[in-house]
Amino acid sequence: MSHIDSAIQRIFNLDIAYFVRVSLFFVSVYAAHLVTYRLTLHPLSKFPGPKIAAATKWYEFYYDVLKGHGGLYAWKIEELHDKYGPIIRINPDEIHIRDSSYFPTLYASAPAKRHKYAPAAGMVGCPLGTFGTIDHDVHRRRRAANSQFFSKRAVESVQPMIYHQAELLCRNLEQAFDTGEILRTYTTYVALTTDAVCQYIFGKSLGYLVDRSAAYEWSRTTSALPRVTPLIKQFPWVVALALRTPSVILHTIVPHLAQVIDLHKV
């Protein structure tokens, strides 16, 4: 039996090794094909820019996630413009324009149609919302439904609420002055804008101008968002995964970002 077991084990090991070699071969062929397509046949292949950026998104990932404190690709893009010109390719599927004369072309009014770039629209994880809508005509209808909330009359109608929130802010500033307390400016104004916006949109303030400890935690959440955005851009499935993850788990793993997910689910 020992000989049989040994033979079976050798066959099993051989199959595993064979599977690994075949898998690596096909992955290599696919990668070579993909890079060749992006550099030669892709619709954006004729735009200038570094070849590595045109070949893979890992170039962008390096500057936005790995290098320094992250989020550095915007500054790298400026360097690339200085080297390659006003219109450059910054990753396999995107170009970047640093030329104001193209503004009327990019943001053309009717009857021109501009569909949203799907990966960018999908980053918010809300395909039924206005920002997450890709199709031009559907986005126009959804925006029209929301436009009444941003009309001059609508804004004037909420001025008393905004004044009330501003009075709470002034009261906090006065109390801090009287007691010598040091207020975090960022936290204070995040609390003001969050309370005002939530009162207007949801009909209920979150009370951050009253509860300073909660306001501080929320300010840490808003500070974390820009840091995680580059990661979401490279791995958009993270948003869908987070929305499906139970709130208790999220609050344990990423407590600050969990607050945003909670609001998203409202």
What does this molecule look like?
The protein is mostly helical and 266 residues long. 67% of the residues lie in helices and 3% in strands. The chain is built from 14 helices and two strands. A two-stranded antiparallel ribbon has the order 1-2. α3 runs antiparallel to α11. It starts with a helix and ends with a helix.
Main attributes?
mainly alpha, two-stranded antiparallel sheet, 14 helices, 67% helix, 3% strand, 266 residues, single chain
Strand order within the widest sheet?
1-2
Low-confidence stretches: none
Globally, the shape reads globular
Mean pLDDT, all residues: 85
Secondary structure tally: strands: 2
TL;DR of this structure?
The protein is mainly α. The protein has helices at 2-41, 51-55, 58-66, 73-84, 103-106, 118-121, 136-147, 152-157, 159-179, 185-202, 212-234, 237-244, 247-253, 255-264, and strands at residues 87-91, 94-97. The radius of gyration is 26 Å and the shape is globular.
